[in-house]
Amino acid sequence: MKHPIYSIATATFIAATAQQAAATSPPPVYPTASELAASDQLAFQIVDQLTGDVGQRLAGTDAEQRGRDWAIKKLNELGFANVREESFMMPTWVRGYDDVQIMSPVMLRLKATSIGNSSSGQVTGDIVYFKTFDDLVLAPDERVKGKIVFVDHQMKRTQDGSSYGYFGRARFQGPNVAAKKGATAIVIRSASTGDHDHPHTGNTNFDAGTKAIPAMALSNKSADKLVEIYNASPYKKDAFIKNFTLMVSSGSKNIGLQKSGNVVAEVVGSNPALAPILIACHLDSWDLATGAIDDASGCGIITAAAHYVRNARTASPKRTIRILWAGAEEVGVWGGKAYGEKYGSEPHALAMESDFGADRVWAVDFNLPDSAKPLQESISRRLALLGIVPRKQKAGGGADIGPIIAKQGLGVIDLQQDGTRYFDIHHNATDTIERIDKDQLRQNVIAWTTVLDEVANYEGELKPEAVKP
Ligand SMILES: [Zn+2]
């Protein structure tokens, strides 16, 4: 790959620019974002190698460990400091076989996948149809008891991805609700906007004391087929559909506590009195694909940005930049929680996360103190050159930085990516390197480099004022 050549060329260019500036007059010439990262190759290289050399990285498995081993080697090769693995134990679920078939009124095999924490088992029985997740919640127990629940909760695409939280409830909570009402299994329409035949997996949780049931998701195409057959069925007027039977079979299992871990690396700042900047992505992926957009690209973006900030100046940035490649995000943010516990009492200034694919950044949100208004305006001006709009919405961060933000009330900047096609690809078999648009990925790196360069060299307060009760 061409990265080392690019890096030396960039460093030479920056050094020459800095020398020129010194020879004429201050203030120093700050290289623009496009000069720093305009020809980035590193982010794509990281995605390509992580997905191609390691493959899927299901949390708690040997595959995820191979991902950590690769990450440590790569971050060392790139010259980051204090590269280390910080392991923790976590309950682990693995997939076996997946099978869903309509048995009556016609026989038809559907494209299905088990949802994380699904129990194993094979169930054949009548289905009970719910148009939405809320219909399932409101249904009396006797309507559900002994039946296979089907939730036809169709998610639509949005630029900001906000439909996932609402429509995803069928997956996040549906199995637990169905199990409590006495269902024998649950099948949901994928929490996906893809009109393809690839089912969407992801995690679900059963309350302690609630017996887990087989929980599976159908591809949108297969869900359409099931609904078409249901609508043609003479039984559909019944409260539940007699003789409309499904066979649901999952070979997945929980294998107890297994080792997972975070990978941490740093660019050591020149002023140890200043609290560090934390930037995060997650290293684990679901097992149906290689996790190119979720979240190898996030790791590529943040790492490339830190690399350019470090290489752009003759001196280190003033603040330390800590890179967190979190483990086991998909199955319950175990890595983010482990980081929050380990470093909860160590001061941090600001946190950022990249975990929404590789498509372009379209907006930026801030949560900074009033005193940092000039910084915020400077960042906004520079990001405007990339077509990024500052919003009034307060930045909230992401899953992996959530625990440390909650403990310390950190400054946060969110670079909001275009999520229009994210949920076509997310958590299904199509999440591979071919989905990455290199130009959009590079725009992310430029935006990230711009912001990181500003905040890592900012000496003022970055934590927002504590909100008075
Ligand atoms: Zn993710």
Care to describe what's here?
There is one protein chain. The protein has helices at 3-23, 33-37, 42-54, 62-77, 133-138, 141-144, 163-167, 169-172, 174-180, 220-231, 292-312, 334-343, 373-384, 402-408, 422-425, 438-456; strands at residues 81-94, 98-104, 108-110, 112-114, 121-130, 148-151, 185-189, 215-218, 245-250, 253-267, 277-282, 321-326, 350-353, 361-367, 389-394, 411-417. The protein is α/β, with parallel strands linked by helices. The protein has an eight-stranded mixed beta sheet with strand order 1-10-12-11-13-16-14-15, with helices on both faces. Helix 11 crosses helix 16. It binds zinc ion (ZN). Residues 282, 294-295, 329, 355 line the site of zinc ion (ZN).
List the defining traits of the structure above.
alpha/beta; eight-stranded mixed sheet; 16 helices; disordered N terminus
Could you outline the blueprint of secondary structure elements for this entry?
Blueprint lengths: L2 H21 L9 H5 L4 H13 L7 H16 L3 E14 L3 E7 L3 E3 L1 E3 L6 E10 L2 H6 L2 H4 L3 E4 L11 H5 L1 H4 L1 H7 L4 E5 L25 E4 L1 H12 L13 E6 L2 E15 L9 E6 L9 H21 L8 E6 L7 H10 L6 E4 L7 E7 L5 H12 L4 E6 L7 H7 L2 E7 L4 H4 L12 H19 L13
Parallel strand pairs: 5-6, 6-7, 7-8, 11-12, 11-13, 13-16, 14-15
Antiparallel strand pairs: 1-10, 2-3, 2-9, 4-8, 5-9, 10-12, 14-16
Could you provide a short overview of the structure?
By secondary structure, the protein is an alpha/beta fold. It contains 16 helices and 16 strands. The protein has an eight-stranded mixed β-sheet, sandwiched between helices.
